[in-house]
Structures are given as C-alpha cells and as structure tokens.
Amino acid sequence: MRNEFDVMIIGAGAAGLAAARRLVRENLRIVLIDARDRIGGRIHTVHAPGFPMPIDLGAEFVHGKPPQTWQLIRAGHLLTYEIAEHHWHFVDGRLQAADDFWERIDKILGKMDEKGPEQTFTAFLKTCCPEADGTTRDMAIAFIEGFNAARADRISTTALAFEQKAADEIDETSQYRIVGGYAPMIEWMENALSGAVDVRLNTRVRELKWKKGELVSVCETASGGGALPPIRASRAIVTLPLPALQKEQVKFLPALSEKRDAARKLEMGPIVKLLINFREAFWEREKIPNAKGQKLPPLTFMHSTSAAVPTWWTQLPIKTTVLTGWAGGPKADALSHRKPEEVLSKGLDSLAEITGFSRSEIESLVQGYHIADWQADPYSGGAYSYVPINAGDARKALAAPVEDTLFFAGEATHFEGQSGTVAGALATGTRAAEELINSL
Questions:
Q1: CA distance 9 to 436
Q2: How far apart are CA 42 and CA 176, in angstroms?
Q3: Which value, in Å, is the radius of gyration of the alpha carbons in the chain?
Q4: Helix, strand or coil, per DSSP, at residue 289
Q5: How many Cβ atoms sit within 10 Å of the Cβ of residue 87?
Q6: What residues form DSSP beta bridges with 207?
Q7: CB count in 10 Å sphere of residue 323
Q8: What span, in angstroms and rounded, lies between the C-alpha atoms of 386 and 334?
Q9: How confident is the model at residue 258 (pLDDT cuts 50, 70, 90)?
Q10: 138 in the Ramachandran plot: left (φ > 0), alpha (ψ -120 to 50) or beta?
Q11: Three-point CA angle 307, 308, 314, nearest 5°
Q12: Of the candidates 63, 62, 45, which has an alpha carbon nearest to the alpha carbon of residue 54?
C-alpha cells in the first residue's frame, strides 16, 4: 500500500471532498483520511427503518443560492425543490399563523450593526427595540439560539450582522432540499474523484509531525485503536471540526499554539434533531385542538418558545408522515447525551403542547424515530460553530496557512459569512486547495 503522497487531506466531509475535487486536476498524489467509516462528516443521509424516505441527520437545507452548492447540484444533475414558507407559532395556548415570521425577525435583526459596538444578543435586545412586543422578542431569541445553535448571552451581534449581510446576498430566506437528501451530492463528489484519490476510512490521525514541506502522520484504526503505517506527504489540508482543534485531538509536532488559541475563541453550537415517522399526518386532520378546532392550512414550520423541542417541520411541498424536531443552543444542551427514549418523550410532550392532541394519542401513532445528537458524536463534538463576543478575527486566524505546508478548511474557518453551512464548508475546501496550489 502506498503511504507517500503529495497531499494529505484530513477529514472527508464537505470541505475535504471539495479540496480533493479541486486538487485532482493538478495531477497530484492525494490521500483523503477520515476516522469515520463513511464520507460526508456532518452530512449524513440514512435510510432508516420505519421511514418512507431517506432522512438527513445532519445538514438538510440548501439556504438560498450559494454558488458553491448550486454548482455541484447542476454538475451532478441533482433534483431539488423549494420549501414552502408556511410558519405557525404557538403562543398563549394557540397555534397562530406567522406568515410575517421573517418580517418580525428582520425588524430586530436588521438593527444590528457589524461596525457597531460588540455585545451579546441578549444585551442588544434590551436596548435595540423598545417597540417590539414580548412575543416578537421571544421569537428573536428562539431564532438566534435555534438557527445559530448558539447562546443568546454569548453570541456576538457584530458577527451576526456580518453573517446576516452575507445571507441577504444569497437570499437565504429561500430554502431548498435535494431530492433524496444530501447523500446524492456527496456521492457525486466522491465519484467525481474518479479513483484519483486514495480514500482511507476508519483511520484516525493521532499525531502530525511536520516541518516545512514535509509531514508524517501517526495513525491508528478508529474502531479498535490498532496502529497503522505512517502516512507521509509534502503538504496537508486539515478540515477537522472545531472541537477537535480546541481539544488538540490531533497533536501537531511542533505545536500550533496559534491555531489552538484561535479555535478556543470560537464556540461549537449544539443541535439535537429528532425525526419521527407517524402512521398518519395527524397535523393535517380537519380539527386541530390548538388551532381553534379548525384545520390548519399548509403547514411547514411550527415554532414554540416554551416547548423542550421548540421547532418542528414537515417535508412540504412533499407530503409525508414525517415530522422533524429541532433544538439548538440551550434547548439542545438540555436534551444532549440523554437516552433516545427520553429525547423522544420530550419530543412527544412538545408536540402535544403545541398541537393540543393528547400525548397518548400522538405516541400511539409513532412508527419509528431517529435521533441525531451531534454533541455526543466523538468526531464532530457539536453541529456547527458560532462567534462569541471578544473572538476578534479568530476565523481568519484559524484559516491562515502555516509555512506553505499546513492549510486549513472546514465551516469554522469560513470568514466571509457562511460558517455553519454546507456552502461555507465547500468554499473553504476550495480556498485551501487554491492556497496549496499557489504554494507549489
């Protein structure tokens, strides 16, 4: 087995695959390493028993029209569909139409200034919007904590304002799904490597010994910890998730203290995702107790600020019997590292609270469920990163190459406003590959 290469890519998620895809055009010897037994990283589509369709345990939506993602969608001839934006909000014991959801949120978020004084979102909310009612304020906090997987009392408003501007440029309020989940895109990217890349799965890098123009990785099998032959390369692209850099799960020799320090200025956001398949779509019944006993118009999203699992969505415009529950930030912390049946129980309680159907009736309809607790995943340690106050230019510092030998990618290194997204991860992989090529 060959163990000497021109380029070593650590991590076979979206960033690593994008880097490999760019580098294969340069006639380089490339090895792509991942500790998991699959490619994709935090993109993970599964065909779960009891579900009528593939389900995405990680990334699910295409937010807006980021060119990095849509170029792959077009190149792979993948089918997509736009998601209907029908929002309902549970407030004062009732499900109420919230078609002005984005408008109400934007009235608050639009007052943040990327050049203004840095403060937490909680502090900002106390002074920014005296005219906003309590429900709108609660919705804004729930959105910041859920969408950004962040703590409102930690996340930076200047960073949020910068990211909001970038989101507006790609029309992020329009959302899409890829038919069959994200798996078809990942599979197409893997196939596009055309056997030109040596892919090593179940391979954990423990140490990376380096000097300018020379690297040696000390590896072991991820499943059993058995030693593997060292892998040598001239350059490496590191796409490790933020917690792996914070905890120095890969030991760099000599140490990269500037990378560790930059990583520790950022935070990894928690997400717990609960997908349930029911015998019937009970939310489509003629009478919904908490909707004044009436039938709901098309339902895409249900929001609550009080429920343990505060956000739920359907697959509209595709009609299925599947609901997805989403908890981010502090709500996710409360559910993380718990037994699956406990998370399901909290989810069913939440659905009963929001819809008004009895807990026992909803539970009787459950055919199958699947839980993604990304904090409990040993390789990711969370869902995606966010910028707390006083982080400065930590993302840029994390992304900076070292000695034309080590290059860094992954969503946490995206400093142009799309961190936390597949598009951001893809862009960083391509950026790191271009930096590497320019160093040759």
A1: 11
A2: 18
A3: 22
A4: helix
A5: 21
A6: 218, 251
A7: 24
A8: 19
A9: very high
A10: alpha
A11: 75
A12: 45
Amino acid 293 reads: G
First to last CA, the chain: 26
Please give the single-letter amino acid code of residue 419: S
Q: How many CA atoms lie within 13 A of 410 on its CB side?
A: 31
- Whether the CB-CB separation of 275 and 181 falls below 8 Å is answered with no
Distance, CA of 344 to CA of 368 (rounded, Å): 10
Beta strands in 279-336 (DSSP E): 301-304, 311-313, 322-328
Give the pLDDT band (50/70/90) at residue 86: confident
Using CA atoms, how far apart are residues 286 and 89, in angstroms rounded to an integer?
19
Mean pLDDT of the chain: 94
Q: CA 267 to CA 120: how far, in whole Å?
A: 14
Whole-number Å distance between alpha carbons of 326 and 147:
9
CA angle 147, 288, 343 (to 5 degrees): 45
Domains of the chain, first to last: 4-46+182-266+388-439 (3.50.50.60), 86-172+271-376 (3.90.660.10)
CA distances, 306 to each of 77, 154, 218, 353, 360 (Å): 42, 20, 48, 9, 20
Q: Where are the beta strands (DSSP E) in 92-160?
A: 94-97
CA neighbor of 345 nearest in space, from 369, 328, 315: 369
Of 161, 158, 147, 152, nearest in space to 121 by CA: 152
Structure confidence at residue 224 (pLDDT): 81
Q: What is the dihedral of CA 246, 251, 256, 260, to 10 degrees?
A: 10
- Answer yes or no: are the C-beta atoms of 112 and 161 closer than 8 Å: yes
